[in-house]
Fold this protein.
Amino acid sequence: MAFSRAILFALPVLVTALVNAGEPPVIQGVHEGDDAVLVGRVLLSELNCTACHAGGIPSKGAPELGQAKSRIHPAYLEAFIADPHGTKPGTTMPNLLGHLPMEERAAAARALSHFIRSLDGPDFETATIQPEAVARGRNLYHKVGCAACHDPEGKSLPDSSPLIGMADKYSPTSLTAFLENPLAVRRGGRMPDLRLTHWEAADLAHYLLRDQKPKANPPHDPAQAGKGRILFNQLGCAQCHQPGEPKTGFAMPLTALAPAKSCPTADFALSPLPRSQLTAARKVLDVPVDPATDLQLSLIRLNCVACHERDGRGGPAAARDPFFTTSNLNLGEQARIPPALDGVGAKLLPQWLLKVLVSGASVRPYMDTRMPKFGPGNVEELPPLFGQLDSLPPAPMRRIQDEKVAREAGGDLVGDKKLGCVACHTFNGESATTLAAVEMTTLTERLQENWFHLYLRNPQQFHPTTIMPSFWPGGKAVRPEVLDGDPAHQIDAIWQFLSRGREARTPSGIRREPIEYGPGSGEAVMLRRQYQGIGKRGIGVGYPSGINLSFDAAQMRLGSLWKGDFGEMSGVWRGQGSGNVGERSRDVVRFPVGPAFAQLESLETPWPVLEQAQKAPGFQFQGYTLDNRQRPTFLYRFDGLEISDQWVDQPDGPSLVRTLQLSQASPEQLYFRLAADPELKAGVAANTFLLPRGLILKPHFAGMLRPAGENTELLVPLEGRSSLVIEYTFHHE
Amino acid sequence: MIRLPHPGAVCLAFLLPSMARAEPLGDEWGTGEREADYYKITEIPVPAPHFIEAGCFATLPDGRIAVGTRRGDIFLVEGLSAPHPLPTFQKYAAGLDELLGLDWKAGAFYATHATELTRITDTDGDGRADRFETVNDSWGFAHYHEFAMGSKFDREGNIWITLGLSESYHSKALFRGWALKITPSGEEIPVCSGLRSPLGVGDNGHGAMIYAESQGPWNGSCSLKHLKPGGFMGHPASFNWYEFAPGMGPCPVEPNSPSRLEPERLRVKELVPYAVVFPFRRMGRSISGFVVDDTGGRFGPFAGQIFIGDYTLSIMMRATMEEINGVWQGACYPFREGLSTGILNCHFTPGGQLLTGGTNRGWPVRGAKENILERLDWTGRMPFEVKEINARPDGFLLTFTQPVDRAVAAAVTNYQLTTFTHIYQAGYGSPEVDQTTPTISAAEVSTDARQVRLRIAGMVRGHVHDFNLGALRSSGGEAPLHASAYYTLNEIPAAE
């Protein structure tokens, strides 16, 4: 692997005028010893030569000045214009005032800065540096990719893009805004968008400005602005900077320039080497650039090579390698180092590659370094170039004609019973283990089918160190029982299965985490959902004392009681929510389906029968109130009676006291059914009744048992009563 | 380094049959990065341990936003409108079932969830609900897949509830596949039958109640439909409940399958033609909650229009509606893609920002994030868009957000217009069929250059009119942010 090294154009020489040339510009991505024409072409673009001189090479552009007054401290602005190379050594901004005598230079810079300050935007705002933000920002800076191009803290690496004078230039507010959307200011994409959240950008800004002491803003002098505007036009600032329209014919075309002649207008502080490289490039401007070189130029200009290797060039330099990290070391180096771009044009679909480049789309959540976005307008030519340059031999593919057969087999192969792809790869974000390698359901949106076949047959030929195994070693399927062991058919089956994307069925082995839900901090919790034995109109209540109930709002009855934890919610809070609330106990006592109140002509009259989930005729659920510990009192109406039904837990164990209040004395022949169960029987203590699983019922009045088919029923005649109290207690073991 | 097998060692690929494009959810518009210049997406961070799968929103009189969730909570959120929000979430109520409708009136929430419309109040003033009163629960259940969406109060104080079919195909319990109107006294009035899988119900901005229907049986594509009282929304599975809705009159005639809506409209007099059809995949796959822009311009140039989400594609779209010959119809337009979750609903904040939320589970979705709220803010820059399309007796009137380039807009060759419809059938969905290409004979640009009157021969009743305006330019030379617009022409206006 060759490490990139920036060209440092040392040995400043006296150029056009009596200028202290300062440090030469830093151009990232080019190597010492690179072909002079190649470097020259990069320079023509990066130094914005082609912004003035027509020459068929795009110029990178320069920062937008429209909102510069909000971004840049006025003093820095003035100093930078007066002496760019001295103020920010390594900058590609040329000195345009060198032709002026020293005293006029300062005045011109001042006028220009006031002109820029007269443009749109709020004033420069200072803010105090926050130490916690600095600490978070330091971590981010060395993790998300900043250190791929800029110096890590405490080190000075030769090829770093300079971060000099930051504290003089920005405020935390303005740097945050810049980092959130660098492409809005620097449209050329040399500082790409790391997809930082606002808060991440703020942390980074505080870190980068950690030594800053807020300074006052010198007053703006509108009188100077007019003078500045004239200078802005005279000097051709608008050739590179917005706002303003660049003028055509501002300078001679590149081809018409005399060889080796210095730029009379702009001093770039160049040494002889880059000058000769510029000259070399200019000489062959009319020679068409082949696609490979064209691509290489783009990869250098955008400094893709800082992170990605291609053709043996680029990838993290040794000194920066420690700042390429991963949250999942188990996935090996591939989890840490951005992928090589060799063959990428034969691997990725062009529309996906474009999305990666334009929007920073990314599929490796474990990689700490972020793929930045370069925005529209900077990278559109890259996917076709990659596609043109890269090719792979055709894989031996055979399509299974019956989609259903293919998808069925593919789903099986992916699952843990066959090839176990789910052991490492996520499927719709879920996986069988914690490895969480690249997501499978988006795979066919990203990859070329031919590459997929070649890769699956022999992953090591693409990545010698990959931990991805081959399931067809030597062309033999390790699962011969699927699709007759035909590798081409098996891989096609996986492809067809995965091409369903998020609509593909969940393969075997995907583990779903339970969602535990229950009372906390001394309060009850409630959830109205589907419960076993009730259906949709269930209302579950979990009490902190470790007892739980489900109430049926269709039939106004107790549905079940259980002790222990309240519920496991994946049945109702995952997927479409098709399941029941999972009662978190083996000891669930279920109460009979059917209304809890009924008019019986005599004790021989059977209790009315209702199907589960059927609304009980004559009843109307009216809601509930919650007390200050979230415990419910259910409210319902039956046959002219308003009934309130309160459930209060007891501090000393899994026990509930239920109080029913009727709005008036109950009519004759009205009964209340407490329970019905084959094992229901009277307890030893007076007026206690026993249900399975240790549940004891204790009505505060006389109940009667009667046989009802295979069940025994516990009934209470309500005649004349207007309240009932019942205790439900799980026997202490 | 890649070591490749020797080409001689591999057999040549067979000629492969063409596969469905390997992006089953549908293509992206590809306009997301440009859209960001005009409408910025801001994530509203949800602090742990809260979990938000928003199904509905409401604004309180004090400006707080209430969010109702699938998990059944109502949160009161403060501070979500800040440029870089770090809002506080207060859990006001919990324990409800798939909240998909929320409004606030006289100190109480009215929440529509799976099983009922509930009035929710905080009687002791501690900031948490303590009284839940059943306003209405007059519908049945046979399956978990039976959701209920509730509107805001309409102009008469009613709440409209749309009830999905059982298992999305049948009507096994009372009023599955119906729309009910719940009056201020809590009485239910069945208003429409024939719904399939509704998501989103409310006023269309002109006083007519509409709902969002999903593609499926009897629905060739998703559409906004007018809940015309007494109307039949197209899916006959719910005919079995007419005897429980005496005010609805006799059960309609069964529609024929396969057919087209246009002839069936004549046979089945209760059948209300689908007002705005959203071409499948191009304009969503599961259109969802919508809101009318009442921000008076704070959200940009589309005041009064409908903003509607899509669950599957995680996008927001626009729609406009007009009543022609007593029938509602209109157009839909792409608006913003790139949201992070499946959109269930949306809501305007008091500051004119469009809040969106939803879920990522249960059905395939492009925006695969869970537990996320996002806000769309107009950046103040004016996009160049077709703002609205209106039908005219002999063509359409196109209104733009910016003046058009007159020369470009006056050339009829710069408009591409085709039409199509769907098969109206019991089978699932429909391909686009019966394509035609009308002839544009003139494109007349208005004096202010903001409108173009297209004179057209060959407009087709019952067809979606598919406009491609990509060749147009603003007077500043800008291409339209989105080229497409789709007008559903149920009726052609009488001559002017």
Observations:
- The first strand of chain B starts at residue 39 and ends at 44.
- Chain B has two domains: 35-378, 386-489.
